[in-house]
Specification:
By secondary structure, this protein is of the alpha/beta class. It folds into two domains: 3-219 and 327-386, NAD(P)-binding Rossmann-like Domain (Rossmann fold); 223-324, 2-Layer Sandwich (Dihydrodipicolinate Reductase, domain 2), CATH 3.30.360. Helices cover 39% and strands 17% of the residues. The chain is built from 13 helices and eleven strands. The strands form two sheets. The chain has a seven-stranded parallel sheet with strand order 3-2-1-4-5-6-11, sandwiched between helices. Strands 8-7-9-10 form a four-stranded mixed sheet. α2 packs across α3 (87-96). Residues 222-326 form the Myo-inositol-1-phosphate synthase GAPDH-like domain. This is Myo-inositol-1-phosphate synthase GAPDH-like domain-containing protein. One of its GO terms (molecular function) is inositol-3-phosphate synthase activity. Residues 388-407 are annotated as: Disordered.
Length: 407
């Protein structure tokens, strides 16, 4: 956080004293002036100042006490973006839309301004003549400079930019350029989007050799979160799902990006994977994503589930999920930044399948059911609490590369 945060009266003086002595950790946001990033920065400042409780932050629950996670007050924010709207102004717009509490942008204005001062131009932009390797070098240099100037123990890169279409050519998409820069700069990495990021096959060898922990992809915040609970319920109760259809209505930058059918296809792949993994097969039905600009940062998701019961009795379950996308995503972004920082400190490397709880399409071969994913997450927490998770320890579930195994 900014130096101005130190002048505030903490909610817990003892905790604040411990936090003040903790090493500072960088959080570098790709898409740093978007709604999710702005909400994460403003929210972290609000929690640090004791203005709001940490609702939605799993790492603030008792299961993570004593894990050595970096305190929220130790986080320093920066990032890349291709837009130039300052974070304070973006936060005011979010407050006007009801995404942030009224008055919060003013209360944490210094923190927003400090983070905004650390945002660097992203790319590639139209007309940029730099090669892909030059772009990666430039992004990595920004990361190293940020880490050095602030005396940070480490910096975690988190991709919260707009969804990209699935790449079809030989060139790396922008999300993978940023992932490559994280590898080059020695930074743990989180892909909170459906974009390629570290998943791109061209990065596989470098990622495996890096010794860095990473996690992704596509944060699980709404419809798919519910599916990861309901799918196992049907399977465990031996109820035959005949069809599962869904519709998403959303606006804002994400809605505009997902109006592109190729980007929507990348998004829907994770939703289908959850059903396939929890039900054993993908039932009939599709998910439709509709851009409704008037909704702004709010979204509505409907699911229609047709299933058979005893003696073939035909039944239906319908669900409606209405929520604020940024408010759902921001606490998870803070969770993941803290967990990746601690995993890096503990010497863990490779894809952390123990963090599948947070994603629609997680790395590795871990379970898709939310309950099983939560068990893996708490096992990772116990490991971090217990012996520090040294690289020679081995790790939890199948396909786990924590402990330095290859991808």
């Amino acid at each position: 956080m900014s130096a101005n945060s130190a002048s505030r009266v903490p909610a817990d003086p003892a905790s604040q004293e411990a936090a003040d002595s903790a090493p500072r950790v960088g959080v570098w946001l790709i898409g740093a002036r978007g709604s999710v990033a702005t909400t994460a920065v403003a929210g972290c400042a609000a929690l640090t100042a004791g203005l709001h409780p940490p609702v939605g932050m799993v790492t603030e629950t008792p299961a993570f006490a004593g894990c050595g996670l970096p305190p929220l007050s130790s986080l320093v924010f920066g990032g890349h973006d291709t837009v130039d709207c300052p974070l304070p102004k973006r936060a005011e717009a979010l407050a006007a839309a009801g995404v942030l509490p009224h008055g919060l942008p003013h209360a944490v204005a210094a923190d927003l301004a400090a983070a905004d001062a650390e945002i660097r131009p992203g790319g590639p932009l139209p007309g940029d003549t730099r090669t892909q390797d030059e772009l990666v070098d430039a992004f990595a240099a920004d990361l190293r400079d940020f880490t050095r100037r602030h005396g940070l123990s480490r910096t975690v890169v988190v991709n919260v930019a707009s969804t990209e279409p699935v790449p079809t050519g030989p060139d790396l998409p922008a999300s993978s350029l940023y992932a490559a820069a994280a590898l080059r700069a020695g930074c743990p990495y989180v892909n909170f989007t459906p974009s390629s990021g570290m998943h791109h096959p061209a990065l596989a060898a470098e990622a495996a050799a890096s010794g860095l922990p990473y996690a992704g992809r596509d944060g699980k915040t709404g419809q798919t979160l519910l599916r990861s609970v309901l799918g196992p319920m049907f399977a465990q109760r031996a109820l035959a799902v005949r069809a599962w259809s869904g519709t998403n209505l959303l606006g804002g930058g994400d809605g505009a990006a997902l109006a592109d059918p190729a980007a929507a296809a990348a998004k829907n792949a994770g939703k289908e994977r959850v059903l396939a993994d929890t039900l054993g097969a993908v039932p009939e039905g599709e998910v439709h994503i509709d851009d409704v600009p008037a909704l702004g940062d709010w979204k509505t998701a409907w699911d229609h589930i047709a299933f058979d019961g005893f003696l073939g009795a035909r039944m239906v379950l319908q669900t409606t999920w209405q929520g604020c996308d940024s408010a759902l995503a921001a606490p998870l972004v803070l969770d993941l930044a803290r967990l990746l920082a601690r995993a890096h400190e503990a010497g863990l490397s490779g894809p952390l399948t123990g963090l599948g709880f947070y994603f629609k399409d997680p790395h590795g071969d871990g379970p898709a059911a939310l309950g099983e994913q939560y068990a893996q997450l708490t096992a990772l927490a116990e490991r971090l609490r217990g012996d520090g998770g040294t690289a020679a320890d081995g790790a939890g579930g199948p396909g786990e590369a924590e402990g330095g195994a290859a991808l």
